[in-house]
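Much of our argument rests on the idea that a fold can be written as discrete symbols. In the encoding step, the backbone of a single protein was reduced to a row of integers, each denoting a local shape. This step matters because it turns folding into a mapping between discrete strings. For completeness, the protein is quoted in full, as a sequence line and a line of structure tokens:
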Amino acid sequence: IRESFSSYISTYMDDPRFIKPHASYLVNMDHVQSLIGNEFIMIGGTNLPISKRMISQVKRRFIDYITQKGDLAAL
């Protein structure tokens, strides 16, 4: 990649499935198993951190996304 991470992911940020919970991560919420504390637990078992600065916004967006999708088991 010959550009900044923020520039590279900008095309994904218009898609409601994607969220940037931390400076170093872009997450497709279709692949999140659950949200526990300040981490996403991914379907494959990987834990991805959510920054303290972003936690309330990320939780709100994730809950909205899961509610619209009808997958309340992820909460």
About this structure: The CA atoms of residues 12 and 18 lie 6 Å apart. The beta strands are 18-22, 25-28, 32-36, 39-42, 47-49.
